[in-house]
Amino acid sequence: MSYFTKVDIQFSHDAPAFDDVIDCVRAQFDRERFGVDDIVAELQRGWEEGKAEFNRLECSDIEGLMRRISAKFPKSRMCVRGIGEEWRDLWLREFEAGKIVYSAGPFLEGKSPSYFRFFFGSK
What does the DSSP 8-state code read for residue 88? Predict the structure, then answer.
């Protein structure tokens, strides 16, 4: 099973050097479950071009990685927009100093995705 997510990345200031980010990726993902080198390569593309595409990474995976990176570079605000496979899987997160300072989207902590509430009702 796979899950595809498109991601846009923006920075409030100049992006930190990508070489300084690679250790965060390797620390975040287990080599047994994820193709870490593939994640590094695609994140580098996102870092340089502002757009990346990940397979097998969901919002929570990307969010955890960006929190880790943000904590390492506390003076830079990172803005991430994700578009997943589900019709309403659209989300925004802004990170600063390792914390989420803004979030919008269906997969927020403690809430059912709006896509499922729409079709199956809320619990």
Answer: T
Beta carbons within 10 angstroms of residue 18's beta carbon: 15
DSSP state of 98: T
How many structural domains compose the chain?
Answer: 1
Q: Summarize pLDDT for 93-114 with one digit per residue, the tens.
A: 999 999 999 999 865 555 544 4
What is the C-alpha radius of gyration for the chain, rounded to an integer number of angstroms?
A: 14
Distance CA 82, CA 4 (A): 10
Q: Let me know the angle formed at the C-alpha of 79 by 74 and 81, rounded to the nearest 5 degrees.
A: 150
Of 2, 10, 116, whose CA–CA distance to 61 is shortest?
2
